[in-house]
Amino acid sequence: MSNNIWRSWHTMKEESRRREELRAAALTGHLSDAQKQEFIQVAVTDPSISAELEELQSTMTRLDAADIKRSEEPVPSDLEARIINARTKDGPSAPERSGAGSASRARLAGTEDLEAAAHTLTAAFKDYPWTRHVIPTQEYELRLHRLQHLHLTQAEQHGIVVVTGAIEGVLALLPPDPPTPAPEVLEQILALHGDRIDRLTQTEGSPGAWRLETLGVRPESQGQGLATALLFFGLSAAATHGAQRVELETSDPRNVRLYERHGFTVTSSTEPLSAPPVWHMENRLPSSI
């Protein structure tokens, strides 16, 4: 074996080993800041690592749903193979899972996707505590759909909107200080919230922080790793636009656990007597990729 061939083989072996280490750390939620940056760098140049992680995360989600306990000890080196083998035997076949996982299922949305995306978010947030609190019950779903469409339009024009291939999941991010919506759009938002407009509050974001405006998956498509696909794609896209910090608010404790697995931490929380609880979270992204 020539020196050049040996060096190439050795480099490939080291890269493969490092990918396994990154996937294992991401799967357990124990990525350091340096590993987050390295993972995003790898994902941008080779999106298949996100697809591989999504496959593992999807299986772990299924285990959680079945209330199967897991150890917090380091991930065994053969865990990936065992999980993939088990999923292949008792889970949907590859074609039924839309083929290539998160890398192919998550993509940037265009204007033509916004109507379907609004329908998906309407289904996802139909029973969400905060939307139930701030939107009148009369024609609730129609109001919710219209509000989602208005906010998605703003995000698609000035930020980032990500959807899965068949638009079963949607994510929207806005950069710091986006333009104020046009007066006619603000009038529609006020009218749709009706007499509950005074319940609509939002904490002032940190200077320079991007904001994760929404993340929703249709109820029948939940538990398949789509949220993971959307988050990895969305955060990577934000990082390429210079985002160093992403903030969000959620009123569902299950979402808190989801976001914590993807690098977010709780910065504060409020539990008012007359409104749903709100957790404020942030994710400090690498400064460059």
What report would you give on this structure?
The protein is α+β, with helices and mostly antiparallel strands and 289 residues long. The chain folds into 2 domains: 3-97, no CATH class; 102-284, Gcn5-related N-acetyltransferase (GNAT) (Aminopeptidase). Helices cover 49% and strands 14% of the residues. The protein has 11 helices and 7 strands. A 7-stranded mixed sheet has the order 1-2-3-4-5-7-6, with helices on both faces. The chain starts with a helix and ends in a 5-residue tail after the last strand.
Give the helix level as a range of percent: 40-55%
Contiguous helical run count: 11
| Sheet with the most strands: spatial strand order | 1-2-3-4-5-7-6
CATH topology of the largest domain: Aminopeptidase
CATH superfamily of the largest domain: Gcn5-related N-acetyltransferase (GNAT)
Low-pLDDT residue spans = 1-10, 68-77, 79-104
End-to-end separation: 35 Å
What is the CATH architecture assignment of the largest domain? Answer: 3-Layer(aba) Sandwich
Structural class: alpha+beta
Number of strands: 7
Radius of gyration computed on alpha carbons: 20 Å
Mean pLDDT: 79
What is the N-to-C succession of helices and strands? HHHHHEHHHEEHEHEHEE
Task: Characterize the overall form.
Answer: globular
Beta-strand share of residues: 5-15%
Biggest sheet descriptor: 7 strands, mixed
Tally of separate domains: 2
CATH class designation of the largest domain:
Alpha Beta
Domain N-acetyltransferase: 104-286
Protein name: Ribosomal protein S18 acetylase RimI-like enzyme
InterPro entries: Acyl_CoA_acyltransferase (IPR016181), GNAT_dom (IPR000182), Trichothecene_AcTrans (IPR052523)
Region (Disordered): 86-108, 267-289
